[in-house]
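Open question from group meeting: does this chain pack into something compact, or does most of it stay loose? Before anyone orders reagents, we agreed to write out a predicted structure and look at it together. Recording both the input and the output here so the notebook holds the full record.
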Amino acid sequence: MALKSAWELAAARTGGQSVTKLTADQKTRLAELDRVYTAKIAEVELDLQPKIAAAHGKNDAEGAGKLAETLRTAVAKLRAKLADEKETIRRG
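Structure tokens returned:
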């Protein structure tokens, strides 16, 4: 079985239809969303990482676990929201 190129995989996913090209405005808006959400994720991480480390330092595995789960959940929600907003922009 031969490996497929990225182009062949994309064509298979889209049924061979060409992908709509993004306008300059869409590209700008997508880049801005990336910047905004990267900053939001970094803010959450900067808030919770020291708290997780402090909980580990106090041998509070349960507290550290809860904080780590809070971090994972918050980051996942932000990434999902980013993906939704990007899809809205891509659709036009």
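Observations to bring back to the group:
The mean pLDDT is 90.
The radius of gyration is 19 Å.
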